Amino acid sequence: MKITALRLFNVKRFAGRGVAIEDIGDGVNVLCAANEFGKSTSFEALHALFFQAHTGQPKDVKRLQPYSGGNPVVEADIQTEKGRYRLAKQFIGGRRATVTDLGSGRLVAQADEAENFIAGLTRGGTAGPSGLLWVRQGITGIEDRDKREEEDERRVRASLLESVQGEVEAVTGGRRMAEVSARCAEELGRLVTATGRPKVGGPYDTALAEQRRLAAEDARLTADVAALRKDLDDRAGAARHLKDLDDPAERDARRAALEKAQAALDAAKVHGEALRSAQAELAHARGRRDATRRELDTFRGALAKASLLAVQVATAEQARDAALVRHRAAMDEIARADAETQIAETEEKQARDLLARLDAALKAKDHAERLAALATKLETVEALRMELEGAEAALASLAVPAKTVDRLQDLEIEIAGLAALETARQPKLGIVYEPGAIARVTLDGQVLDDGEERGFADSARLDIPGIGMMTLRTSRPAGDNDALRKAKAERDGLLAGLGAENLPEVRRREADAQRATVEIERLRAGIKALAPQGLPALREEMARLAAAGPLPLEVKGDPDSARQGVEQAAERVAAARLALREAQPTRGVAENALRGAETSLASLQGERAQVEASLGPLNERAGREQALADEARLADEHAAEAEVRTARLRDAAPDLASAEAAVRRLRSAEESAARQIADLRERIAGLDGTIRARADEAVEEQLQETREALDAANRRVAAFAAEVALLDRLQSTLHAARSAARDLYLKPVMQELRPLLALLFDDLSITFDEKTLLPHRITRGGAEEDVERLSGGTREQLSILTRLAFARLLARDGRPAPVILDDALVYSDDDRIEKMFDALHRQSADQQIIVFSCRQRAFARLGGRALSMIDWKPED
Amino acid sequence: MFRFLHSSDLHLGKRFGNLAEDLRGRLREARHGSIERLAARARENGADVVLLAGDTFDTETPTPDIRRQAIAEMSRHAPLRWVILPGNHDSLQAAPLWAALRAGLPENVILATEAQPLTLAPGVALLPAPCTTRRPGRDLSEWMDTAATPDDTIRIGLAHGPVQSFSEETLASDILAPDRARRAGLDYLALGDWHGAVAIDARTRYSGTPEPDRFKHDEPGRALVVSIESPRAEPVVTAVETGLFAWKTTTLDLLPTDDCEAALAAILPPAHLRRHALLRIAASGRAGIAGRTALVAAIADAAPDYALLELDETGLSTECDATDLDRIDRSGALRDAAETLLAQAGDESRAEVDREVARGALVRLFSYCATASS
Questions:
Q1: What is the mean pLDDT of residues A796-812?
Q2: Is residue B343 located within the same domain as residue B231?
């Protein structure tokens, strides 16, 4: 079908007028006009003509009516393979629909028949699928559209595909397939998630959980049962062991063995004791043997020594006798010298006595003389002393201390000075008498001479004869002459102290004292010369001499001859003593020799006495020696016997250590058996407890039960796994089959679409929705996207291309249909629009395409036949 | 003439952890109940002693309630006597258990814990071979060869363990000599350990458990009534039923053309037996997707009747034909998917696990499509 002309009257803005678009040709036809030019109105009118029943008054029809009212009239000329027709409809008022054969001018159909004719063109109808493929402004073919229109279009597509490829349902399995797939998916979904994992809470998951639980339980119980079995085995083992240990025969055997070992040990101990005593005996015998031997040897040694000593003693005695002789000779010599010395000494003594007596007599005489001289001297001294004492007494009364004298001297001078000063200071009185005046004035009773000036102290009384008495008083302060008074008082005091009248008297006394002193000195010097030690010493000497004075002796003889006699005697004594001294060393040597001989002899004799004593009486010695020898032999024999006995015992001694070890071992075995018996009983009791506890828990039954349950669970899990595999397989198979069917079904349109897509897009493939038979997913660069999510431009391009593809398919099928695009490329950019133009032109070779657009400039490049609107009015 | 009941492997206290909670309780209770049923069988058959050849208790340490309630139950049936032999599960190693049992033991319960002759009746000697440990590592019955008994005595051996390596818990060295009865001059050797009844020879038998506890043996719980006329006379042995719960595996061999539901219905037991039945349907052969889906649905539908009903599909392979695919879709994507899965399932180059997944997915797709509303 092709549209060759479109006319409309009283439609929307064309109130009371009409426009016509004539000469619509093959290929691309473009009605490019500004907005509000009537372009869309034309489109809507054309749409209404094909899709709105003339009898109806739906909204779309109402919309066609101008505001001013009136009845919209639309007509179109079409060309089909059957001929050229004019389709006309009037809506709202005077409703009509007509189809006129333009060739014959014959009215082919009207009213409902005309509608059927039109429907046949657009919806297939009896003449098979045909019609128009619309793409409206901003419509991408995917948004909501008028249901009916959309459905019509879908049906066009479906019918087209069916005609090409057969019944849709027949191909894809349709609802049945959907139902089966849904059921499969539901059952699979009950068991597993989309990713094939067991669904949580689902039966498969539950079975797996149960399996896991049972496996864990199984492991636990297996361990428990193993423990139980082990306990049972242990218990049996322990019981067996206990029985063995506790067996009376065994017990007796243990005890007998112990007793035997004990006996052996006791025997060994007894033997040990015997050996020890034998050893003691042996030691004793040996000791005795050694002692007797020693005694015998000693005795024999003593015997030998005794004879040796006898010889030695004899020799020593001879030596001693010789020494004695020598000693005696020496002694005699000395005695003689001694006697001589004594004689000499006696003589010397006599001589000395005589001399001494002579001396004493001489001394007594001297003494008496000295005593007499001393007495004389004492008398002199006494006299001198008497004189001295008298002089000293005189001096004491005369003596004036030099200092006092000097002080008195000073005081006298000071007083004189002070008195002079006093006088000088006194008020002075003087009188000059008239010549001739006889009367004389007296001052204080003393006549004042003419011209005489006289001073006075505090007051003065002037007696003026004939006149009266005049008293003068000074106002001088009292005591002004203290110093003088003090000096006088001191002088007077000092003088009084000396008992002198005045200084010259003192001076005299001083001179007298001087002379007395000289006299005293003289006396003292006399005494000193006579008694330098003083008088007491002299007296003492006197007394001493008087007391110690020897009696006066009367000895006859001459001291000098006496002295000579003494000297001669002394010489004789010295000679005698020299002789004696010479004899002395001889005596010492002789004494030493004698002492040595005596000592040696004594020592030998002592030794001999000792040996002799040890040997005993001489007559018993041989017997004693024999007895000792016998005794030694006997001791030897005894020792040898003891030796043999000890050796025998030692050789036969049982091993005490091993006997003890055996006893120890057996005893410990016995104890260990007892302990083991106790332990085993305890252990059995313990095991009984745990076994009973486990038996009460029925672990073995539980284990068996759990194992069987686990087995069942395993089977169940396996069954679920098999079920999942089965459903999975079914699902994938169904999916694959459906996909394959759909691909097969949509193959023709895909074939048409592919080159068109290639014009606009690189590497873009499309999946069609089975229901709408429009693209619903695209795959670009390996990624799949929903068409709904694509940009508006892409969507409208896809929409147009898809329709072009369908149109092309229709044309191929021998049923060409126009494609009407009403501002269908609003979202596309210029570049894409140009590509779309290429697509349109490529298509337009055998395809009518009518484009309404307001994009004049963009569409200027589209080329094709430009359509224009002309005024038109229905013929009526 | 001496008559006794031979049983073993009561496994009192066994828990059945792999089963539903309430069923576990019932099964445990049934094990305890086997004591009473054994007593009843003994009375009915004139036996005055029950020989329990080991594993009376499931563990070496049964809980006091299990132990005491068992003994109390045995005591209730006096003068019927019970001889309890330690087995590998409740060996003598568990000394506390045996000590506890020995304490306060009623007169009619005998513990065969010593390997020495026990006089059961005048002229009847029991030679027990108690398990000393879980794995004794030797033939415990060997002593019977030299065990002296008076002449003209009926010698009955009592032992627990395998006679060959078909045991429940095998260890070569623990194996009992299979000809122990002959070697030891036993009139009868009562064995325990194997949970199914097995006759080794005329004088040597495993009684099996009185109350089965697993699918393995696929036979009802039984005990053996043994009558021995005189020394060296061949014993007369009769099996008596003692089980409460029936553990059964039933095979269901299918062809793609079979009506699976009908085939299942044909093998299910009558309704009144179902409560005490633990039934495993071992499906084998081949089934179409539809048939298989229907079988699973039918099992799920029938399960509440039973103590346990389960389907073992491991032996069943799925066959998929054009009709099955058409029921998914005749063309289009669903059909494509189905064909993809079918191709995967049949792709020999893929791992079996992977193919199994594809098969499962296909079956699932089928079931979804079958219930899809459109």
A1: 74
A2: no
